[in-house]
Write a structure and sequence with these properties.
334 residues; mainly alpha; Growth Hormone, Chain: A; 2 domains; 16 helices; 82% helix; globular; MFS_trans_sf; transmembrane transporter activity; Major facilitator superfamily domain-containing protein 9
């Protein structure tokens, strides 16, 4: 394996490890500080809301300015914000920091643009002018894409993202409320899901061998929605934590495969054109779902109960099954 690829995988592992250590504990921390389910939902919505606009812009800027620099600056700023968050016990400040985490995916790119132009232009050029220049370039790049060709793929991406976001928004609270698990055992359950997801992603190439005929990824997308729907139904009907964990395994596989399948569906259509911009737009679809889903989960948890959040995820998944089936039939006719 090429060293650069290995290093990228290692960086991705460290990034996910850091997020995995912090994010699952934040909802319980908010509850211990006196916040209700609405605050927990707001925590996720603020992050995704600020991140929403940065997705396609960063994708376009990475096409224009280079991905390595964008990656380095993004990781550095995220590390700084997460470090500060570890010393804070105020709900308001934590919410602000979560918003900053969403913004840093845009600021590093503009900072890079500013630094680069400062070396070649007069010192009196303003930072604001340079940021506007970068943004205009991104908007021009976005305008070149025929978005009408991708709406169905983005809708399917939005549905699976919404289902997973609602599920994960109340994940640790669900385990604590329904099964009375301690943080230690909640961590064990999260680790099990993480391991299964990692293994599934690692073997995605082997899984694809069974779908050599599925050029447009529509069959894999349909099977993914069915697998996630069956898993959610099983978790709703589970009577103990052991049944819950067994039903969790297909969800881990389906969600891991689904992230890759939805991205490949977009990239297969684009045929290499505007790749970075479309990847950024795909991330924005995920972020848009992330804005809505935590508030939906918080509202349901506050007024109906944490257990009912799974029903919202199941509804979105079943809708995805229906749309995936229609998408598959349409492609077969074409």
């Amino acid at each position: 394996m090429d060293l650069s690829i290995f290093l990228l995988q290692f960086v991705a592992f460290l990034d996910l490890l850091a997020v995995g250590l912090i994010v699952p504990l934040v909802p319980n921390h908010i509850r211990q500080l006196g916040g209700n389910h609405i605050y927990v939902g707001l925590l996720g919505s603020i992050y995704s809301g600020f991140q929403l606009g940065s997705g396609p812009l960063i994708g376009s800027l990475s096409d224009l300015k280079g991905r390595r620099t964008i990656l380095m600056l993004t990781l550095l700023l995220c590390a700084g914000v997460y470090t500060i968050m570890g010393f804070i016990s105020s709900i308001a400040v934590i919410l602000i920091l979560r918003g900053m985490l969403g913004l840093v995916y845009f600021l590093p790119a503009t900072n890079k643009k500013t630094t680069k132009e400062t070396k070649s232009k007069a010192e009196q050029d303003s930072v604001l002018d340079k940021i506007i220049t970068s943004s205009k370039q991104s908007v021009v790049e976005l305008s070149k894409i025929p978005w009408a060709e991708y709406w169905d793929v983005f809708l399917l991406k939005a549905l699976i993202s919404f289902a997973m976001a609602v599920y994960f928004s109340n994940y640790s609270l669900y385990l604590k409320t329904i099964y009375e698990l301690s943080p230690k055992y909640i961590g064990y359950v999260i680790s099990i899901q993480g391991v299964i997801s990692s293994v599934s992603s690692f073997f995605i190439g082997y899984i694809n061998k069974f779908y050599s005929y599925d050029i447009d990824y529509s069959v894999r997308n349909l099977h993914m929605f069915i697998l996630v729907g069956v898993s959610l139904m099983g978790m709703i009907l589970a009577t103990n934590v052991y049944m819950f964990i067994v039903c969790l395994l297909p969800l881990a596989v389906g969600s891991a495969v689904g992230r890759l399948v939805s991205l490949e569906m977009v990239l297969t259509r684009c045929k290499g054109k505007h790749r970075g911009t479309l990847i950024g737009a795909t991330n924005s679809v995920t972020s848009l779902s992330g804005v809505i889903a935590p508030m939906v989960a918080g509202f349901i948890g506050q007024y109906f109960g944490v257990a009912y959040g799974l029903y919202a995820s199941l509804f979105a998944t079943l809708l995805g099954v229906a749309l995936s089936y229609q998408y598959r039939r349409k492609n077969k006719v074409d």
